[in-house]
Design brief:
It is built from two helices and eight strands; from the N terminus they run βαββββαβββ. The protein is of the alpha/beta class. The chain has one domain (about 5-110): 2,3-Dihydroxybiphenyl 1,2-Dioxygenase, domain 1 (Roll), CATH 3.10.180. The strands form two sheets. It has a four-stranded mixed sheet, covered by helices on one side. It is globular and about 45 Å long. The protein starts with 5 loop residues before the first strand and ends with a strand.
């Protein structure tokens, strides 16, 4: 078995589309008022509308960037909030929260 799809909760689908489109250039397809699929992200997925805050400390979606500083600037320019930065053997990464409060990370090789 392999991971086929990632689904994230979203309080505001329009805000998620604006953020991920601006920060990473993702494409979107609306599937009614409560669901939006994303593509052009390396692995397809979707955002499902919910009024609940996303849980913290669960599974972490990690994106890869050749230029970590440019990725961080794109995230903050789009309205993301940086919540952690650290180096590790083999690379560096930062964590951010999106407009719905989901925590994701971006890493690059050392």
């Amino acid at each position: 078995m392999k991971i086929d799809y990632v689904e994230l909760p979203a309080r505001d689908l329009a805000a998620m589309k604006a953020f991920y489109g601006a920060a990473f250039g993702w494409a979107f397809e609306d599937w009614g008022p409560d669901y939006m699929a994303f593509s052009n992200s390396g692995l397809e997925g979707g955002f499902r509308r919910t009024d609940d805050a996303p849980p913290r400390g669960g599974a972490l979606v990690i994106l890869y960037a050749d230029d970590l500083e440019a990725a961080e600037a794109a995230v903050t320019d789009a309205g993301g909030i940086i919540v952690d930065r650290h180096d590790f053997p083999g690379g560096r990464r930062f964590h951010f929260t999106d407009p719905s409060g989901n925590e994701l990370a971006v890493w690059t090789k050392a």
